[in-house]
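Format is chain and fold; as here:
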Amino acid sequence: MNTVSFVTVDVFTSKRFAGNQLAVIPDARGLSDDEMQAIATEFGYSEVTFVLPPENPGNTARVRIFTPTIEVPFAGHPNVGTAFVLGRQKEVFGRELGDALRFEERAGLVEVALHRNDGIVTGARIVAPQALAVGPAIDATAIATCASLRPGDLADQTHVPVRVSVGLPFAVAEVRDVDILSKARPNVTAFEEANARYPLAEDSFSLFLYARTPGQPWQIRARMFAPLDNVMEDPATGSASAALGAYLVSQLPEADAEIDLVIEQGVEMGRRSLIAVNVSKTNGSVRKVSISGDCVTAMRGEIEL
């Protein structure tokens, strides 16, 4: 019987069984697309990654990312967690690794820097593969209905609800405070209606809700719902955090800015996550967005095929 090895890690946390779960298949050679999708569905995590040899030998690896229902072009915590797993094993496909990695993905090339403590890999920082893309605006009533909230629970002083992306699109909307955020619940029927109204080629309608901390605007609490991907709620969403950070910084009146954000997510699920976001803005445009965080290994094993 054929088997394939896996490692699971908890991402954006240094505490086991917190953060966001990720399964990594460090050597996915020989697996078909259908087998990859079946494995991702079996785990039931928000994403599973499959590591393959790079098409360009100058890069580290090709990484494919699957949700329980579909392959996606890019995601945040899968890149951070995959880098952590590969960094801990010190080599990939017979090649020793340094601290700078490059992953080939459908959204483009993802640059990665490993984080170490006393020489041991503890996490990673990744750079978003695409420039900030904004639009379309999304009806506030549709957003509120998706989250089982009232339209008046949303805040629009900074921006109206809108779709943003730095590699994977999300609808983002601000709510008035953390108490309202904690009351949000996904309404699957409303998500289906929003998906039909705001269709995407690469994924289904996903919603990233957030609240800013009074007096500390760069301290943010967030939640992400993607029930059409069989992810009722995600404990940590790096790609959405990067897109939100880029969009908020793009709204600043200053032409040049270097902003650090901390996005706390997963609290309501009992899987608290901390996502560090850095955004560089030059001459009025966001030029670079990176996210980083810690990881911890949870399980190892084999999958029978």
Remarks:
- The domain at 3-127+294-304 is CATH 3.10.310.10 (Diaminopimelate Epimerase; Chain A, domain 1).
- The two ends are 7 Å apart (CA to CA).
